Amino acid sequence: MGAEGRLAHKLFRDLFANYTSALRPVADTDHALNVTLEVTLSQIIDMDERNQVLTLYLWIRQEWTDAYLRWDPDAYGGLDAIRIPSSLVWRPDIVLYNKYCLSGPLPSAPCADPSRPPNAQRALSNAPSALCATPAPPGVSPCLRTGETCSETTASGIPTLSPQGRRASAGLRQRKSGPAEEREGAWDAPAITRSSCRVDVSAFPFDAQRCGLTFGSWTHGGHQLDVRPRGAAASLADFVENVEWRVLGMPARRRVLTYGCCSEPYPDVTFTLLLRRRAAAYVCNLLLPCVLISLLAPLAFHLPADSGEKVSLGVTVLLALIVFQLLLAESMPPAESVPLIGKYYMATMTIVTFSTALTILIMNLHYCGPSARPMPAWARALLLGHLARGLCVRERGEPCGQSRPPESPPSPQPPDGGAGPPAGPCHEPRCLCRQEALLYHIATIANSFHSHRAAQRRHEDWKRLARVMDRFFLGIFFSMALVMSLLVLVQAL
């Protein structure tokens, strides 16, 4: 063993000869012990929107001054820092207040009980016994395994990553402050935290979340232990980018709260993780197909009525939207408010439903047949006149902007049964005016032809009105679908 090793062993024996880790290391018990908390975010492991649980991989560094660990470096060969197991020294009982609690054998770490008010939690005389889970059976390591990673809970209540059975180590180093020299303890520990986070999906998939992690002492009040953050925010230097969430920052805020059960204040530090969802995958897989389908639905008004596929197109589009709605419901967490993309799907399905219903009504106008009633004069003047010119609905060979003037069908003249020779004498024995039967049949044929022509004109008028309505609703529904799709897609920019 080298000289430095012998000096370290000697220093270790001298420091811990009468040292106890059960009491706060302060020279005066009336003074508060200052603890500096530093958090480094390494990775977002999981964001469970359904259970509203955020799982993070953090590095937590705690620094405090231990009044009992003092030595003169010159007496130990200039040795000004040693590293020792964290279980040998006093450590702050800093815990995560909003830790997510599960049922079953989990680490014996204190956590906030949602069913108990904060003052009742503070009133517990033995705070570490307020556990969020049942302790592990004897002989079983109380660790939560995820793959090959084991998360062990130390005495402070913060889980430390221990893939190979190692625990976090505490370090003691010299800090000069004026004439006196103090020894400052630093405890670095990797941690996998599972905290509760209120997830608001009203703007899904363009939502932003704010998840707070509140750290504070579980048993000591502000007069005994004062916790403060190091810096204005957590460090993101070693952060591994997440494929679903983009981290906007992690500011820190210190609060001092007073509970109803106790008169002394309780300080805590809250690190608020600001997240914004990466919406590219949702836009490509869920939103963009719905936009294309919604723009395809109004084209049913442009489809010829004789094709027989107008209603089939609307029903097919509606079924496709229902399928996408079911896919969205599986990937979307349940919430009280309807997400933005869910509102868009419902609005699109409503538009497609109304367009299909109007298509059926317009097809009834198109196939009304020759037995239909004559079109009202106001409809002929307003719809076949002004609206047809505005929408460029014209007959074959008719220029746009001009409509066929409305024609009144000639009134058929019933055959005159008393038709006879004209007034005055007719001396031609073979004159047609003397053929009463022939004249009667000719008049009947002429009246039938005029009636047929009038029925054909009525039928053509209703068919033309159906084309005008198709063109009108095509513009209305296509504009609605386009504006609604643009409003949703603008959120992605």
Automatic annotation (TrEMBL):
What one GO molecular function would you report for this record?
Answer: transmembrane signaling receptor activity
* Positions of the Neurotransmitter-gated ion-channel transmembrane domain: 286-399
Q: Does the keyword Thylakoid apply?
A: no
Neurotransmitter-gated ion-channel ligand-binding domain residues: 9-99, 187-278
The biased composition feature labelled Polar residues covers 153-163
Q: What are the UniProt keywords, alphabetically? A: Cell membrane, Disulfide bond, Glycoprotein, Ion channel, Ion transport, Ligand-gated ion channel, Membrane, Receptor, Signal, Synapse, Transmembrane, Transmembrane helix, Transport
A single Gene Ontology CC term: postsynaptic membrane
List residues traversing the bilayer: 279-301, 313-332, 344-365, 472-492
GTP-binding listed as a keyword: no
Enumerate the subcellular locations listed in this protein's record, separating them with semicolons: Synaptic cell membrane
> Topology versus the membrane, per the UniProt entry?
Multi-pass membrane protein
Residues of the region (Disordered) are 153-185, 397-424
Q: Which domain of life is it from?
A: Eukaryota
* Composition bias type Pro residues, residue spans: 406-415
Pfam families attached to this UniProt entry: Neur_chan_LBD, Neur_chan_memb
Q: Which reaction does it catalyse?
A: K(+)(in) = K(+)(out); Mg(2+)(in) = Mg(2+)(out); Na(+)(in) = Na(+)(out)
| Xref: PANTHER family | NEUROTRANSMITTER GATED ION CHANNEL
Q: Which family does it belong to?
A: Belongs to the ligand-gated ion channel (TC 1.A.9) family.
Q: Write down what this protein is called.
A: Neuronal acetylcholine receptor subunit alpha-10
What organism does this protein naturally occur in? Camelus dromedarius (Dromedary)
